[in-house]
Amino acid sequence: MRNVLDELEERGFLEQVTEPEAVRTALEQPITCYIGFDPTAKSLHLGSLVPIMALAHMQRAGHRPIALVGGGTALVGDPSGKTEMRRIMSREEIDANAQGIKGQLARFLDFSAGRALMLNNADWLSRLNYIDFLRDIGKHFSVNRMLSAESYKIRLETGLNFIEFNYMLLQSYDFLHLCQNHDCVLQMGGNDQWGNIVAGVDLIRRVEGRRAYGVTFPLITTSAGIKMGKTHEGAVWLDPDLTSPYEYYQYWMNQDDADVQRFLALFTFLPMKEIRKLSDREGADLRASKEVLAYEATKLCHGEHEADKARDASRQLFGGGAGGSDSVPTAVLEKSELERGIPAYILFEMSGLCRTRSEARRLIAQGGGYVNNDRLESFEKVIDTTDMNDGSILLRAGKKRYVRVTLGAEGSLGGSIKP
Question: How far apart are CA 65 and CA 118, in angstroms?
Answer without folding.
Answer: 9
